[in-house]
């Protein structure tokens, strides 16, 4: 649905010099759909099956689901609303299009890295150890600090760095929104962009012509295909 809205906006603004203004707000909504399916859906069902839940509560699989659903769904949804609202506050000439684009891709790539490179492999290995050796042993400090687990922990670092880098443009965006809100309202924002009409206006004389017609013979020639038949 978000992708369809994006295409609709792109078509409406195709004949204009300015692009669809809410592109990245809708992109964050698309990310919500992606993470809602993966983080909340797939990873959520993965840990909520009773036989799995018995062995994995409190392991890395729980953190894997939490990252994908909390940040992936609710975090991206909050950012979509924020970007949408700030687009109305920040003047057109100050809107950081490239910064928002970088933030979107950095946050999603960083989150994907955390999930698939670190948390998911850690959780699967920990679940396997819990089933084979026992739940207590899988949560013991000796197992968590084993060499293999430490390597997977450190493999998460690039994803964390990419994710944190994606937050920096959002801080700048929030600051621009605050300063623009208290600045004089004399600069063009998205509110001043012309909107495509939802309905086509009809000339008043045309409306009166149809409203005042009392019979089919009084209607204009092109609107009465049976006019000649009745006269004949």
Protein described:
- The protein is mostly helical.
- The longest helix is centred in the middle third of the chain and has 37 residues, at 97-133.
- The model is unreliable at 223-232 (pLDDT under 50).
- It contains 11 helices and no strands.
Brief rundown of the structure:
The chain has helices at 2-12, 23-48, 50-56, 60-89, 97-133, 135-138, 141-144, 147-154, 157-182, 204-211, 227-231.
In round numbers, the mean pLDDT is 81
Order of helices and strands: HHHHHHHHHHH
What is the tally of helical segments?
11
> In percent, how much strand structure appears in the residues?
under 5%
Q: What structural class do you assign from the helix and strand content?
A: mainly alpha
Overall shape: elongated
- The percentage helix is over 70%
What is the count of β-strands? Answer: 0
Give the N-to-C terminal Cα separation: 55 Å
Uncertain parts: 223-232
Key attributes of the depicted protein:
232 residues; mainly alpha; elongated; disordered C terminus
